[in-house]
Structure prediction request, 374 residues.
Amino acid sequence: MSSVVRIRDVRVVLADVPTIRPHVLAMTTMNTQTIVLVEVERDDGIKGFGEATTIGGLAYGDESPEGIKLAIETYFKPLMQNCDANRPANVMALLHRHIVGNRFAKCAVETALLDALGRACNLSLSELLGGRRRDALPVAWTLASGETAKDIEEAEQMLSARRHNAFKLKIGKRDVASDCAHVAAIAKALGDRASIRVDINQHWTRAQAVDGIARLQDAGVSLIEQPIAASDVIGMRELCDQFDVAIMADEALTGPSSAARFIESRACDAMSLKINQSGGLTEARKVAALAEVAHVALYGGTMLEGGIGTAAAAHLFSCLPDMEWGTELFGPLLLTEELLADPLVYRDFGLIVPTGPGLGVTIDTGKLGHFERK
Prediction:
């Protein structure tokens, strides 16, 4: 594309969408998800969208929906205006030089730039990223009501509908014995019909982790996510050495540098790859490349994004080598309302990667306007 197309405008919208049930995590309980949408408009009229959705305000991490909106409008937008929209890599390099951190905001901006470029070139995002290897991705569902009977009933419904056959349980809010008994009961009820994983979200001490992982391993759990503090690299390595069950890093991974540190320290058996947490599609791909070279298994993580962020992650994950632990790109299914004109397609225990230019999805402006925070 020889002609220069300038970035005309950058807009950010916050949309508060209720969840289908309380989503109980160790650090907070979610009843609403705030979707952060970024729109980049080019001077040829083409628009691209990205998403910077987080979990539980500031309860989970150091970026909040309100902070992301303020940062993009105050610092990102002046730098981006009049940049060449056909050169997303140059725009992102400029942002990296002038703005420290703000990984979620950078992810949304990069996604919007690539979405717009794909629409302009009539290429899907996965083609811009080198081409997809698969058209569907396995998707796990998170059981997080906190009630054993409800979680079993929910899992049975998912299995019956052929929507999910892998389940991640959120624990860490109760004492170790109670949490592990809850997991064991669900694992026993589902048997060999489903894979059971557990996410503690850093809420165990080292001693609690030794006790809890032993119990979970006996219960048949196959994967344990971030049991202790993200900063405790030595503790994570010791847990990997002590137990057979796979230990996965999540909150500890904030981009390529942190991934390299965990690989060098042999502090995880698997990595949860998240485009927002990594700082964008390009940075997430670097994390994936490091994991591939080091033979560390990958899991396609989510920040419970809506349709835009989920589609972006799906495009990237479809381009990567085999992801041993599948994905958990179920974010839109947790919401009571869909913000896309045509919802993402989930069937046969997986997500169909969208086709069409850019992200291959379109915002339902009417619904977005209804939920937009005024």
Observations:
- The chain has a mean pLDDT of 96.
- The chain is about 40% helix and 20% strand.
- The longest strand covers residues 7-24.
- The domain at 128-352 is CATH 3.20.20.120 (TIM Barrel).
